[in-house]
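testing teh design pipeline on a random one, pls ignore if ur not involved
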């Protein structure tokens, strides 16, 4: 795509084009392969400022106590030690307690949570200590099953490099994605996974542009971002 053609394409078409290329390259996959919604909620917090390997180790260390009632009853220090591998474990223990307290308002019943309005749930999650937009949206789409697009550093990097005028505001970028891609929980989860996968395989801070499936359109090919 030439610079003039790239400038002529609308933001919506650019977004759809990127996902079309990524989808053809990677094929469909389930990115967050866990069945227990509560584990996904904990994982969304444990993975903050670390990688998934460390977060998963923390979940494994919780063992049979990886359930809301056990976490609610556990001493804060003990909880922190069990999730030590995730880093910032004392702060994360407080966050896990806080999100579990939020879950208790629904009697730890995910079916009751899922019956609620998405915007109301998102508002409630954002009020929980330690949960920002990215974590709230990850919980909504992967644990609760509501269509809420997750914005992260990978999304910003991939789309900036591919010529999108990415909004600085998290909420504006999320709104752009949700206005472009029809509300669909499964697709939102998959598309977020595509961006993470692509960001890890090709679109690194020092990008691997020569072998990248997006390299023909990328305005930052060969340039760090």
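output:
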């Amino acid at each position: 795509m030439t610079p003039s053609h790239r400038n002529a394409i609308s933001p919506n078409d650019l977004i759809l084009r990127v996902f079309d290329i990524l989808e053809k390259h990677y094929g469909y996959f389930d990115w967050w392969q866990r069945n227990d919604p509560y584990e996904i909620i904990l994982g969304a917090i444990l993975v903050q400022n670390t990688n998934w390997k460390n977060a998963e180790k923390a979940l494994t260390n919780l063992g049979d106590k990886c359930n809301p009632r056990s976490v609610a009853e556990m001493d804060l220090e003990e909880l922190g030690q069990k999730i030590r591998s995730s880093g910032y474990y004392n702060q994360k223990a407080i966050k896990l307690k806080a999100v579990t307290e939020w879950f208790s308002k629904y009697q730890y019943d995910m079916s009751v949570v899922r019956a609620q309005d998405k915007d109301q749930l998102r508002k409630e999650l954002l009020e929980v200590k330690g949960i920002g937009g990215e974590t709230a949206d990850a919980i909504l789409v992967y644990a609760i099953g509501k269509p809420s697009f997750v914005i992260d550093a990978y999304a910003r990097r991939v789309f900036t490099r591919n010529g999108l005028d990415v909004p600085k505001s998290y909420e504006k970028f999320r709104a752009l994605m949700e206005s472009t891609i029809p509300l669909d929980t499964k697709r939102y989860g998959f598309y977020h996974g595509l961006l993470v996968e692509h960001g890890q395989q090709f679109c690194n801070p020092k990008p691997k542009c020569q072998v990248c499936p997006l390299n023909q359109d990328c305005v930052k090919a060969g340039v760090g971002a």
